[in-house]
């Protein structure tokens, strides 16, 4: 059960709750509070976030919403994939309901009528990207490590991730989607996953200013250029040249053939991922680029997620990476050559009980 304190500036924060909700001045502050799990999202947490957005949307006392994570490790490591693993082994009935509410929340955040300030400090992955990178004000820090690592567990980037990555300059988003690579502050700004950099040490001061000032003014008081310039700008030439290839197999071949050590390392990285997830990810990412709205992309990603849940590689990938931690997943099919067009088409086909069904909206 999620404890929600009363909405007033003096309201105490309830210890042990998975989502803490309070108001401070003009700001509504949401804190993901599972620090031992790097604030991994559960279904009740998604519902609590949505309830808070409902409560504050028409509350004139709240002019800005702030999202942050408890603890020092990160905003949110993603969805609770241990729960997804258990559900997949039991038949996969609870996870689709979680995804439906999670993806609807992602769409709501993107359309929220008040400034939604996401403090993307530390680890921000998977579902953590979904509750932050669709916000109107996205703040990274010197500690930020942002990624969509789904292909490493047999899943396709979701929570609107293929729309975010599909809009990155050139083929940088394709590179990040297939490799699951992490980016720091500078590369998050370059790829459009974030808007501002604020030193981690200044976050509390930023929140205090958000409680009394308009969001853009508060952020401007603390925003700085990242000290680390990042790596993607310097890799753009070979990334763009390789990832424009029509298939994953040809992308891998081009990476090996570049003569660039980092490109060859990337090819080796790709060959360790789920072959099915790689091919499905490329197909979903490229189709998402043609879709007019985030809602349409979330519908597409829901199809892909449901297909993965019913397949072999998702539970096997979670087992290898998170449950047994042997880092030795046995993918099936085991190679890119064995993944058929029909296998990929399954990720683009609506599930038997229907799509996510989000109403069309203007992009």
From TrEMBL:
GO molecular-function terms, A-Z: 3-hydroxyisobutyryl-CoA hydrolase activity
Keyword Oxidoreductase: no
Catalytic activity: 3-hydroxy-2-methylpropanoyl-CoA + H2O = 3-hydroxy-2-methylpropanoate + CoA + H(+)
Domain Enoyl-CoA hydratase/isomerase: 28-348
Pfam family for this entry, one: ECH_2
The EC number(s) this enzyme carries: 3.1.2.4
UniProt keyword annotations, A-Z: Hydrolase
Ligase found in the keyword field: no
GO biological process entries: L-valine catabolic process
InterPro entries: ClpP/crotonase-like_dom_sf, ECH_dom, HIBYL-CoA-H
GO cellular component terms, A-Z: cytosol
Name listed for the protein in its UniProt record: 3-hydroxyisobutyryl-CoA hydrolase
Organism (species): Streptomyces termitum
């Amino acid at each position: 059960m999620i404890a929600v304190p009363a909405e007033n500036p003096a309201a105490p924060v309830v210890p042990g709750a998975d989502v803490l909700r309070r108001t401070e001045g003009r700001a509504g502050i949401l804190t993901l509070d599972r620090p031992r799990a790097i604030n991994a999202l559960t279904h009740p947490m998604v519902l609590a976030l949505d309830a808070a957005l409902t409560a504050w949307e028409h509350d004139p006392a709240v002019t800005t919403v702030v999202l942050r994570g408890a603890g020092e490790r990160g905003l949110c490591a993603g969805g609770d994939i241990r729960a997804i693993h258990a559900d997949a082994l039991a038949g996969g009935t609870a996870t689709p309901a979680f995804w439906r509410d999670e993806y609807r929340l992602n769409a709501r955040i993107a359309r929220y009528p008040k400034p939604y300030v996401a403090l993307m400090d530390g680890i921000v992955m998977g579902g953590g990207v979904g509750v932050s990178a669709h916000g109107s004000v996205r703040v990274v820090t010197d500690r930020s490590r942002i990624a969509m690592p789904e292909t490493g567990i047999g899943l396709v980037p979701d929570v609107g991730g293929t729309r975010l990555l599909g809009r990155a300059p050139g083929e940088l988003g394709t590179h990040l989607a297939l490799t699951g690579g992490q980016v720091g502050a500078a590369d998050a700004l370059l790829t459009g996953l974030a808007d501002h950099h604020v030193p981690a040490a200044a976050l509390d001061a930023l929140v205090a200013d958000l409680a009394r000032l308009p969001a853009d003014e508060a952020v401007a008081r603390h925003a700085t250029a990242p000290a680390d310039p990042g790596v993607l700008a310097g890799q753009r030439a070979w990334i763009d040249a390789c990832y424009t290839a029509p298939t994953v197999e040809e992308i891998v071949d081009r990476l090996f053939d570049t003569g660039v050590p980092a490109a060859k390392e990337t090819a080796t990285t790709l060959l360790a991922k789920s072959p099915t997830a790689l091919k499905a990810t490329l197909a979903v990412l490229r189709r998402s680029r043609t879709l007019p709205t985030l809602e349409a992309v979330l519908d597409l990603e829901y199809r892909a997620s449901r297909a993965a849940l019913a397949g072999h590689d998702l539970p096997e990938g979670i087992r290898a990476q998170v449950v047994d931690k042997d880092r030795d997943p046995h993918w099936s099919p085991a190679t890119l050559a064995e993944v058929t067009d029909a296998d990929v088409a399954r990720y683009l086909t609506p599930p038997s009980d229907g799509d996510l069904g989000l109403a069309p909206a203007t992009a």
